[in-house]
Amino acid sequence: MAMIAPSRRLRRTPFSEGVEAAGVKGYTVYNHMLLPTMFASVVEDYRHLKTAVQVWDVACERQVEVRGPDSARLVQMLTPRDLRGMLPGQCYYMPVVDETGGMLNDPVLVKLAEDRWWVSLADSDLLHWIKGIAYGYRLDVLVDEPDVSPLAVQGPQADELMARVFGDSVRAVRFFRFGWFRFQGRDMLVARSGYSKQGGFEIYVEGGDIGMPLWNALFEAGRDLDVRAGCPNLIERIEGGLLSYGNDMDRSNTPHECGLGKFCNTATAIGCVGRDALLRVAQEGPVRQVRAIEIEADSLPPCDRHWRLLDGDRIVGRVSSAAVSPDFGCGVAIGMVRMTHWEAGTALRVETPDGMRLPARVRENFWV
Amino acid sequence: MAMIAPSRRLRRTPFSEGVEAAGVKGYTVYNHMLLPTMFASVVEDYRHLKTAVQVWDVACERQVEVRGPDSARLVQMLTPRDLRGMLPGQCYYMPVVDETGGMLNDPVLVKLAEDRWWVSLADSDLLHWIKGIAYGYRLDVLVDEPDVSPLAVQGPQADELMARVFGDSVRAVRFFRFGWFRFQGRDMLVARSGYSKQGGFEIYVEGGDIGMPLWNALFEAGRDLDVRAGCPNLIERIEGGLLSYGNDMDRSNTPHECGLGKFCNTATAIGCVGRDALLRVAQEGPVRQVRAIEIEADSLPPCDRHWRLLDGDRIVGRVSSAAVSPDFGCGVAIGMVRMTHWEAGTALRVETPDGMRLPARVRENFWV
């Protein structure tokens, strides 16, 4: 494995100082920003995440702020999910598609007010798409990237740690809702959300200057909870079936292929770009779809490219994320499988880049 | 320094196999793709680049293909550079700006035909912007990312090596022009261009399958020329004043601040998005601008964030790229300086993140 070469283009975050002090060992790049991938080891981080509480620098989940009289029209243009019932204080996971129904991003939409939204991004410059649409349609909106850097608190002890820093009322925040909480005289948006299945919160930290004070306060308050620096964990997120844009899906996939059909209200999401294409898909259904794939393996190479899924010598799909799970004692993977082979229980083989063909099986559900 | 964590999201290239076999030691991520940053060492790579010939995997310079009846209108909307005189066979460096005149990318535009163009990208998803504009204006165009991966051949022996693989006629290709040359039965677009001042070519390789055969043919043919795997070299590109999008400029900068005013034909580039804003800038001139900065230093930390440029305790600019130059025996840097202090010869101090304040000087020109 090679080193990552530092440069300003790979942006540091308001929490980088804390991440470095905690001994980060691996990085990836996400929205032109550094995202930690490992502290102790992926397995040790995984065990700790499932039993204690971690603080994650996910500043790379950049926001696009959409504000102004036409903002509601613009955000509805971005997604086939019907946003009419959405209230301020809610977060919606939403597929964003282009005119052909191809996935451009799968952000979380945060509704701050009737005319103010944050689009909390996965890894692509969706800002460019939103600005392009706003410009082309001459919409009366402001579209920009604000100085907002999410910090996640994840794990079974997340409620306890957050209550110590923000007060007990933070426990009352419901899933995919948010509230405003005070820290050192600043109001912070705190949502119950995050890229793990262990539960927790995301704090949308406005203003880089308050980043390290908050980081330090969380570690101070959680010393007896064994709080540690963590990051989205490859094994845990695959077990939980959390898709990763750029890994498990890209512009060549429709939301339906990604198993996101339930977020497509194509009949009622009036004005959505790509609606015509998706109406067709909604009628006919996709011919391939995301599935949980179990692999018989004690060890696996990093999944840095598609691995072919085979029935004999016939290619019937591909794996896009994979790791060995200590808790389930097998390889856990996310794949895209053709409809001829996507039934739960179907036996396949997966071919890794070194030419190994390992037994694999389509599962009904992910592991959690 | 930390490791880079492999995943499919950080895309491999058609040349990755060759890059790994050549012993790549460092990577950055560019347009969601791996870009090597170091083989032997940055200094050794630098010396070799200036004396011999290198083959660079710059597949990360992704193309946006724009095709169809409205394609000329669309590409002119992207840039304040007047494209009316551009002919098929030419390459134009062009600033791309948003409606406020802020830089979105600084690609090379390749004109394949009157109705077919490649926009060869710096590091941002300009595809989203171009698709958004095309959709908003209902233009009759196709906009997509084709399977085209540039491979650069750079260094004083580039002509000799290229002639051995593509024939002597490749020597006749002029700067920022291209021609079509045959390799193993395939036509390849070869331009005289590249991200160094040592001269050379970029081969726009269509179809990933022919990547490694071409890579191997170049190494085979250049054995006695000491051909090596290389990459854009930090020291050499700063010496040469080659700006890097995301490092030396971003959306907050106008082309004029970046010293790209000569590519802004704001009066005649009719239809350019951001023209109103840039007309204003063109009249008044920028209040800060890119400058070559010489630093008195034998060693420098990696420039992974802005370094402040100071006159006493007053901030008068910032450095965005820096390295120590063996050939010039000083720190070489690219900075943005306020007009009060941008005259050649102005003495300043540069503050590195460890708190050191080093003597620095504004130069008239870059080093080559």
Automatic annotation (TrEMBL), chains A, B:
<protein>
    <submittedName>
        <fullName>Dimethylsulfoniopropionate demethylase</fullName>
    </submittedName>
</protein>
<dbReference type="Pfam" id="PF01571">
    <property type="entry name" value="GCV_T"/>
</dbReference>
<feature type="domain" description="GCVT N-terminal">
    <location>
        <begin position="21"/>
        <end position="266"/>
    </location>
</feature>
<dbReference type="InterPro" id="IPR027266">
    <property type="entry name" value="TrmE/GcvT-like"/>
</dbReference>
<dbReference type="Pfam" id="PF08669">
    <property type="entry name" value="GCV_T_C"/>
</dbReference>
<dbReference type="InterPro" id="IPR006222">
    <property type="entry name" value="GCVT_N"/>
</dbReference>
<feature type="binding site">
    <location>
        <position position="202"/>
    </location>
    <ligand>
        <name>substrate</name>
    </ligand>
</feature>
<dbReference type="InterPro" id="IPR013977">
    <property type="entry name" value="GcvT_C"/>
</dbReference>
<dbReference type="InterPro" id="IPR028896">
    <property type="entry name" value="GcvT/YgfZ/DmdA"/>
</dbReference>
<dbReference type="InterPro" id="IPR029043">
    <property type="entry name" value="GcvT/YgfZ_C"/>
</dbReference>
<feature type="domain" description="Aminomethyltransferase C-terminal">
    <location>
        <begin position="288"/>
        <end position="363"/>
    </location>
</feature>
